[in-house]
User: Fold these one by one.
Assistant:
Number 1:
Amino acid sequence: RKVVKNRRPILAENEQKELSDLLERGEIGIDVILINQEMTKEAALDRLMKSATHNAYFIHTEKHHQLAVKFEKGSAWRYYERSNNRRAKLKPLVQYREKGKSDKTHLIPIGFHGSENDERLLVDFDSKINRYDLKNFEEYISNVNATEEVLWFVDIVKQDDETAIWKACVWDSQGHIIKEQEFHDKNKFIWR
């Protein structure tokens, strides 16, 4: 798969103001739809193959924190303004039991959805994993998305020892896996 390194687009001043206003109002670039059954990887793919773009299917249970969403080509840099103040006020549904070296980490990079206002899209996760391994995964998918649609599934699974494994799988529009990876944060978590 040929991947083109992509950069965020340069917006005209009026486009930048319109985007800033949208994010300031707390609007979000995806529709989050609550579902009532955990998804297997196969069920997530099936749901996304039938879905419109920018519909996100979300569930939070005692052991799973899941999000599945389809993004049209070129979605990765649609929203890229950040608000550390807004993010700091959110209390993730999956968080560290004790303070540690964690980041408040978006399930899907903010460029795809623009939300610093939705605790469902944010979890505590090891800052080293977030800033290196997970970032590399996300940048690869963002670059693929510059030229094609992507179907993205995140399943954060609580382990018996209270650690968490972040499972990420991204498919193309034909259902072929573009990239799949797991990230194990060995810190102890609480599920709200």
Note: The first strand starts at residue 31 and ends at 34.
Number 2:
Amino acid sequence: AMQLCRLALDLNPDEGIAHTLLGQIYLAKGDRELAYEHLNRATLLDPEQPVSWLMLAAIQKEDGHAREAVDTLRAAVLAVPCSAEIHFALAQSSLENHLPSEALPDLREAYRLKPASAEIAQTYADVLRVLGHSSESRQVVNEARQKFPAYAGLAALDGLMLMDAGDLEAAALAFEIALDSPEPRPEWYLFY
């Protein structure tokens, strides 16, 4: 694969996909500097490719440049506004900094773009709940639970919301589903 990418770049040095692939290859080989160089170039040459932006931001974050990673994701949202993955990554960075209000617009957009993602639905519903948007959160959880009835995180969130509403029987059933998952979270046992 590396030889094909190099051949493609010999023919056209501005081939963004080849730079993306080389970035992935170098990252897998542990050469972060060359990976960064190729991924950065890929975002300039082929900015509509979400994977280049996401990998570049991940390298920046892992290298201790969290602010630079957020800036990269903000630029990515402008370049690829229809990428649920980029909106979700930007929202996750806001949540890591304990800024749920800042995460909400990107979560809303990620969910709009990719409602078939249990992880996005769970995170979006949880942030809505934390920010006091209970009815909207309930609606997202209900829709997502219909699509993903066995998804542990959604079941646990549903259990929490049912407890808050005073429906302890339904909450217990939801927590049973969550706790029956391969990797239940320890805090879920506290509510069961």
Note: The mean pLDDT is 90.
